[in-house]
Description:
alpha+beta; four-stranded antiparallel β-sheet
Amino acid sequence: MLYEIDATAPANTAASAPVEVAARLNKGVITQVGVQIPQGCMGLARAQVWRGGHQLWPTTPGAYFKGDGAVIEWPEDYELTDEPLSLTLRVWNIDDTYNHTLTFRFSTITLQAAEEGRGIPTILRRLAGFLLGRSTP
């Protein structure tokens, strides 16, 4: 599944009081993450992705995404299997004139598809089935 969520930070939104947008996802594995920062932000709009009380991305504590006409994307392998099944998109904007909207994108696959792609759990299931005399898919 591909999720796309916009988060708008009004002008003069302080880092100490960011706009928080909930990104509700299905159970599974996040395989791709992207943050689109539109032209004109000039590094003044900032963003982080949190889950629960922990910063996920960027992974450096206290760091944030910023840019001007930038798309920041990377492959990921983050299991989302227990509550909360949502991420918190935190945005703020030190621009004193303009609002800025950042777009977040998340690609997910099911846990089963991820395990099959990784191969190891499938092999372990088959080996366990063989040793225990059971048929496994």
